[in-house]
Amino acid sequence: TETQPPVTNLSVSIENLCTVKWTWNPPEGASPNCSLWYFSHFGNKQDKKIAPETHRSKEVALNERICLQVGSQCSTNESDNPSILVEKCTSPPEGDPESAVTELQCVSHNLSYMKCTWLPGRNTSPDTNYTLSYWHSSLGKIHQCENISREGQHITCSFTLTKVNDSSSDPQSVQVMVKDNAGKIRPSFHIVPLTSRVQPDPPHIKRLFFQHGDLYVLGKNPQNFISTCLSYQVEVNNSQTETHYILSVEEPTCDSSEFEENLEGTICFRVPRVLRDTLNTVRMRVKTNKLCYEDDKLWSNWSPAMSIGKKTNPTLYITMLLIIPIIVAGAIIVLLLYLKRLKIIIFPPIPDPGKIFKEMFGDQNDDTLHWKKYDIYEKQIKEETDSVVLIENLKRTSQ
User: Which pTM does this prediction carry?
Assistant: First the structure.
């Protein structure tokens, strides 16, 4: 095999936000007997390609430098030695890397709108005004997100996806760039495939009923999704047993052939071992699966709850709550009334010896007290008599 000259005029350009395009000219002095093919790959020999076109493009986040190497050869065999490889790289974004936003991520909500969140960079002023630009293949030009807001430390912005065209065979993706109005921070780029980071809306429960001893749940998928692309969870809460039961299924577990009614456009699930004579509350949620999407981690919110069965009559519980305190109060009153009698019966009183002796010798004590009072009276009479005699003697002596 004859080695061909290298390609010429290799150049690189940026289209839209994150589409990089390399173009080159055929080599000068190539053999006229050679049908030129071009061998190209990115750094570290990634994404090797052999094609006759003199251009190559790649959708890539431009947060780092991207390099493409291109050589010419005369066949489609990768083992053939191509010409000397020519390399061309993109320029890295301008600005301080510490000023770029961090944790930039976007989630597609029900394939209807996309919500992007990020954190400010380290070397960024707190009052920085951010702008988010986005583009996808169905847009004629780059658009800017209008409703930027703050949620705690995170900054968010949402924009519609209703114009995304799914007719193309190529996977659709959204290109996103975040920077500031003044151009002081380093731009951050992000590419979001529409087959990843998708969170569906909650499904809708249409009807619940029992049949053949099982609970059947009829629902409707969220808009923009089909059953084969979703995984399901059905939650049943029983009010009497306080059980919490979750049924995880990859696809509906019953079809319209089991029922007389038409279930076209309806998803159906059969939940076994559900008590029929009690109140059962049912909810549903969904997530995308790996059959249609790259990501299968984002569950939707739970659907509005729907109940079936008989609610336990609260009259009995209310009656018991009223009767029990009355019974307890009555028992306490009876115990208080008969407590003294019960105490006498259980613990009879012990006779008081002092009282017994007092009763035996009560008369003698009274006589003794009477004689003591008499002696005191006699003593007082005697003292008064002596005083009168002394006064009379003094009067006589003075005369």
Answer: 0.69
